[in-house]
């Protein structure tokens, strides 16, 4: 069976299961719902949930156990999971939130409306609510916002036997913890060391944790940025790092996987903003009002900018009428400038996000981009000049279109390099605003270069 046939078979099965699940939800048959969920192929749960729509997803979460509902919600995009929670009564939503890791709780509570978030917190278990409130104090792109509070920490004066007895007594509580390390603290909660579970289990029962611990482990402050965390995890192959407050007290652990996911989400949001999704996130199950706000408003602005760029063309109507070949080259020159600018823009946004450059580095960035833009401009300009000459048999036309393309390529590249830094300096999101402004300017400059140049050398073009 080919891969295409396998994919078609899985798709058909998923659609059938989604239909059966929808019917079971409407019948409010919890046992049937559970049996259908068990039939869903690995990795296909988000697809099945998408078929249910927001109302169906909300009703499903009310029929199944809280821990299973928590796992399912974490399969959905954050905005969609938040919408599902907002559609439930606060008691049921709180019960589901109680079953989630602390960092996921905080993310979803931050994504729902503030009044609903407060309702959920009041209904959650006190210990869970306290952890969630503490995490909500931190920005989501910091160690404090990404950390989990499900970790193991013991006073360094305890013995191996003390810890093992505690692990056995609280096995039910600890079963969902990602336990590779055990942290040691002093009486004030200050981080003192770390030890591997393997070393603990292979040690004699009466040995003190202080004798086993690795002292002064690498730790991060709660306000450590996402970029700094990414750098640390690239440098060190750790599963997680302890998070401390200003007094050195252990308050959480940030995991590698959570940092990697946060970096991927940030890249995805930046990409969507470049495409004109102003909210940085959209899925088709979102409310129409939210999708209009994210797309239509921005498209209207882009239309206005495009009208500005196209407004120069009527001024050269007589020139175009005499050299119709110019119509063929207009979109090529404007689009190539935009494409080159987009490449340069992408590099600048990446460097800006990684902390490699700041808005003050605009001139240095332009100087670094200039040599490559000149080479690219000469190459593509020469190729288009050859096309113009061979096609029309006119050397002057070839030189004109080649020169216009070369210059617009340089303009696009330099603008793409510098514009995000300038926008960031005045407090405008460069990922959202750079693309449309760049396209408008490169279109405008492209039209002016070829049409203005054609008007100057018109006698040599019509001979």
TrEMBL record:
Organism per entry: Thermogutta terrifontis
Record SMART domains: CBS, MgtE_N
Family of the protein in this entry: Belongs to the SLC41A transporter family.
SUPFAM superfamilies to which the protein is assigned, alphabetical: CBS-domain pair (SSF54631), MgtE membrane domain-like (SSF161093), MgtE N-terminal domain-like (SSF158791)
Subunit organization: Homodimer.
Keywords: CBS domain, Cell membrane, Magnesium, Membrane, Metal-binding, Transmembrane, Transmembrane helix, Transport
Listed CDD domains: CBS_pair_Mg_transporter
Protein name, as recorded: Magnesium transporter MgtE
């Amino acid at each position: 069976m080919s891969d295409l046939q396998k994919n078609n078979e899985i798709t058909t099965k998923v659609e059938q299961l989604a239909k059966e699940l929808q019917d079971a939800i409407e019948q409010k048959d919890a046992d049937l719902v559970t049996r259908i969920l068990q039939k869903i192929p690995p990795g296909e749960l988000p697809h099945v949930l998408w078929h249910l729509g927001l109302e169906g997803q909300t009703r499903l979460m009310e029929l199944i156990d809280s821990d299973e509902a928590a796992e399912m919600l974490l399969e959905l995009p954050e905005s969609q999971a938040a919408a599902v929670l907002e559609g439930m009564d606060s008691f049921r939503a709180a019960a589901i939130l109680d079953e989630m890791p602390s960092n996921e709780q905080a993310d979803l509570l931050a994504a729902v409306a503030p009044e609903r978030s407060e309702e959920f917190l009041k209904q959650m278990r006190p210990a869970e609510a306290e952890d969630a409130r503490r995490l909500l104090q931190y920005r989501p792109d910091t160690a404090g916002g990404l950390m989990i509070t499900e970790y193991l920490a013991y006073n360094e004066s305890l013995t191996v036997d003390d810890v093992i007895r505690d692990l056995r007594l609280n096995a039910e509580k600890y079963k969902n913890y990602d336990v590779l390390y055990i942290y040691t603290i002093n009486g004030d909660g200050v981080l003192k060391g770390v030890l591997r579970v393997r070393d603990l289990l292979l040690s004699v029962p009466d040995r003190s944790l202080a004798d086993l611990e690795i002292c002064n482990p690498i730790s991060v402050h709660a306000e450590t940025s996402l970029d700094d965390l990414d750098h640390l995890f690239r440098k060190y192959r750790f599963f997680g790092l302890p998070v401390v407050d200003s007094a050195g007290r252990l308050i959480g652990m940030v995991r590698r996987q959570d940092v990697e996911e946060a970096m991927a989400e940030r890249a995805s949001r930046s990409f969507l903003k470049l495409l004109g999704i102003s909210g940085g996130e959209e899925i088709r199950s979102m409310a129409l009002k939210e999708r209009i706000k994210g797309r239509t408003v921005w498209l209207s602005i882009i239309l206005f900018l495009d009208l500005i760029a196209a407004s120069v063309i009527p001024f050269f109507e007589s020139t175009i009428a005499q050299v119709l070949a110019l119509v063929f080259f207009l979109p090529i020159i404007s689009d190539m400038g935009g494409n080159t600018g987009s490449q340069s823009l992408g590099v600048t946004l990446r460097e800006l996000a990684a902390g490699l450059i700041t808005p003050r580095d605009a001139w240095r960035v332009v100087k670094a981009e200039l040599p490559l833009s000149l080479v690219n401009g000469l190459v593509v300009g020469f190729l288009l000049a050859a096309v113009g000459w061979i096609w029309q048999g006119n050397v002057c036309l070839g030189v004109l279109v080649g020169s216009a393309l070369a210059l617009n390529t340089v303009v696009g590249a330099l603008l793409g390099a510098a514009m995000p830094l300038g926008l960031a300096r005045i407090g405008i999101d460069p990922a959202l605003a750079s693309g449309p402004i760049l396209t408008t300017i490169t279109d405008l400059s492209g039209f002016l270069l070829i049409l203005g140049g054609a008007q100057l050398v018109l006698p040599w073009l019509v001979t």
